[in-house]
């Protein structure tokens, strides 16, 4: 088949890694089973999410389609938005680009540090039916949910926020004191989250400095999750635990989050990296690296 071999980019934002396809001129549709095979770190390319860049129905710079490594499709991914924003900024030589997603239009702009990109993630959704939750809660800053014995729960009363994806945030004194690989799957699929949820453990260790560990819906433990960082920052500010500007420290590194007062939009700033360029045979799923990553903001394979 003429379209069997396709080039791709392997990128990451703070270790949250992606395979990126340019499908604007040559459409690409892979089954969830094929995506899961490609996402397997032992036998495939390995990634947290697969990103397909397509022509935008809304007429903006591009549409970004997001699949988790298990093949499921999701509406938002903050770190991936920074990566695609970087590619489009390089391609257009503009300082600001607009990316269409299933969660709406997102604007990416050049950050202050080399390789840094800022994404306007829009307004957080805070009502129970916007997150959504399986039952009505008047106050989503701390909902009634716990794991473990009633009189001595392991985790309880999470804050909930939607930043394009549903998030549950548990405030703890030590994020390493809990085995998130065990409790994460239970909470991700808890009935209170009818669409599933990303689950975060968060510890405020200094003013406006928050350490976070994330179990990502459809992915598992991840080095970084941009929408989770935004959700944690919003939840902390709502509950007066932090100000409107905070640094979220994830295993992969820090993200700088501002919940802007003027319009309630959440701005996320952090680094991006091209790990390598590759090519794959979509019939056999055999792939090769064709070029190393470029730390100097060059991604010629995409352009």
UniProtKB/TrEMBL annotation:
Give the enzyme's main class according to its UniProt record, as a single word.
isomerase
Keyword vocabulary terms for this entry? Amino-acid biosynthesis, Cytoplasm, Isomerase, Lysine biosynthesis
List of residues binding substrate: 16, 49, 68, 78-79, 165, 198, 216-217, 226-227
Which Pfam families does this chain map to?
Answer: DAP_epimerase
Catalytic residues, per the record, are 77, 225
Assigned EC number: 5.1.1.7
Q: For this protein, what reaction is catalysed? A: (2S,6S)-2,6-diaminopimelate = meso-2,6-diaminopimelate
| Localization per record | Cytoplasm
Pathway, per Swiss-Prot/TrEMBL?
Amino-acid biosynthesis; L-lysine biosynthesis via DAP pathway; DL-2,6-diaminopimelate from LL-2,6-diaminopimelate: step 1/1
Q: Could you tell me the superkingdom of the organism this chain comes from? A: Bacteria
Question: Which Gene Ontology terms cover its molecular function?
Answer: diaminopimelate epimerase activity
Q: What is its main location?
A: cytoplasm
Outline what the protein does: Catalyzes the stereoinversion of LL-2,6-diaminopimelate (L,L-DAP) to meso-diaminopimelate (meso-DAP), a precursor of L-lysine and an essential component of the bacterial peptidoglycan.
Q: Which family does it belong to?
A: Belongs to the diaminopimelate epimerase family.
Under NCBIfam families, the record lists: DapF
The entry describes its oligomerization and partners as: Homodimer.
Which PANTHER family does this one have?
DIAMINOPIMELATE EPIMERASE, DIAMINOPIMELATE EPIMERASE, CHLOROPLASTIC
This protein is called: Diaminopimelate epimerase
Organism of this sequence: Roseibium algae
